[in-house]
Amino acid sequence: MQEAGPNPTRSRYMRGLSRLVNRTGEVTPRTMELAGAITIFLGIYVSCLLVISAWRKQSRYKNLPPGPTPLPGLGVGRNFRLFFVFLTFSVELVPISHSTLITFPVQLSAKYGPVFTVYFGSKPIVVLCGHEAVKEALVDQAEEFSGRAHMPTVEKNFHGVVFANGERWRQLRRFSLTVLRNFGMGKKSIEERIQEEAQFLLEAFRETKAEPFDPTFFLSRAVSNIICSIVFGDRFDYEDKEFLSLLQMMNKSFREISTPWSQVCPARNETVGIFIACGLLQITVFWRRVKQNQATLDVNSPRDFIDCFLIQMEKEKQNPSSEFNIKNLELTTLNLFFAGTETVSSTLRYGFLLLMKHPEVLGKMHEEIDQVIGQSRVPAIEDRSQMPYTDAVIHEIQRFSDLIPMDVPHIVTRDTQFRGYTIPQGTEIYPILSTVLRDPSKFKTPESFNPRNFLEEMGQFRKNDAFVPFSSGKRICLGEALARMELFLFFTTILQRFTLKPLMAPEDIDTKPLENGFAKIPPFYQLCVVPR
Length: 532
Ligand code: HEM
What we know:
This protein is an alpha+beta fold and 532 residues long. Among the domains are: 41 residues; 290 residues, CATH 1.10.630.10. The chain has 17 helices and 11 strands. The chain has a 5-stranded mixed sheet. A two-stranded antiparallel ribbon has the order 5-6. The chain has a two-stranded antiparallel sheet with strand order 8-11. The longest helix has 32 residues. The radius of gyration is 27 Å and the shape is globular. The protein starts with 7 loop residues before the first helix and ends with a strand. The site of protoporphyrin IX containing FE has 26 residues, from helix 6, helix 13 and helix 17. Its cofactor is heme.
């Protein structure tokens, strides 16, 4: 029989043990103390486990979907391999590693099914994965799943429609949607505002003279000006220093809330500092505008969102349950500004990168633009129905770039029966949009960039109800129609006049996100825009 060799694990253990015992082999008082402390700790820990388990059986949470057993001190045991730590005091989903954000829910759902529960301390969170589960919750039981969770990272300076619940949310959402749909707001349509801004962007691109540049603030200045034009009827000059510093801060805060550490510790100095600075600057700019509008308001001719809101405030001033007041005006305009800038500009930025990585796709878009629009007029939104390829590419850019991977967390508004489970009112819900956008039962090539995911065999555009970058149900993105119009008009206007040249071979372009937390942030890069 072969003799067993030295066992390294065992000898390490023996060395550790021998340190606890003195050289004569006797147990010292210090060793006794240590052993006592460990025993007490284990005793308390096991008791806590028993108490939690008994409490869960009896509590209102007894019929939640299955999931990993929560341990005292850690929301979820195990999974350190994935670097996911759920700290007792943390109130948010905590991805500590960039690359594991998607694999974590996928791994847990492989074990527990598409609907499972994880705990942050004693707080349960129900996670929904894949098209079916997310649709059944957000669409089929839309009212129950329409609440908004408390989100300390972004909430600090950004309440308003995004974080409101109940009657306040209903009133602010209905009003904002009506204004964004173009009713009763000035003479210029939203489409005209975008077409006009796209021309300013073309001019800024021309000035680069086909030299390399980073497109980040070119794109965010143009996109932000659309919201500015809607909210206060006016655009900023691209050279305006205050505007640029506002955008730089928004960009930084969007990145900051998407870093792993900010998810672990939302109250970090850096995060709070950036948000306070950003909030203050925005409030200064917006406050000035609200004052100007109040001084020059003509109730018969509203010029912008602020005018419309002021008129509504006046109409409802006798209504005690009205949510139309200066505070909500300020917060809702800030919401639109923040939600409407980084989202669209990050998608355009990711889009450019993906088009440079896939020059054959860029070439086909150029061809379709030349055929349908030509070079003698500016693109219009009605062109979209004639341009299935371009439409499919833009959908695929949004699907693949997967901007808000875990959605903005919801809560259930009442005790809810869902797939045989009982989810008590107020329980947090994370619909993992990533898992819907990459659902293998809904897309031909879920993991790779491929416009054919949205095309029929004969080249017509194919709708897909798993296309949910804007989420779905009652909380679906309020700016969806605006964002889709912006994406179509900006992409087509730029590609009508320019081609995109990367600074390296397409196969060397890295499309991995810079951050992957609350949002998926595209990497910084440079490119040349060359006139066609
Ligand atoms: C590509 C662009 C965009 C993407 C991918 C996007 C995505 C999202 C997502 C995932 C949500 C959360 C939905 C939920 O709670 O289930 C949301 C909410 C929201 N978005 Fe967008 N968004 C985009 C552009 C915009 C724009 C341009 C605006 C501005 C008009 C905007 C305003 C809002 C607002 C106000 C909410 C909160 C809605 C509510 O709570 O009722 N978004 N968006």
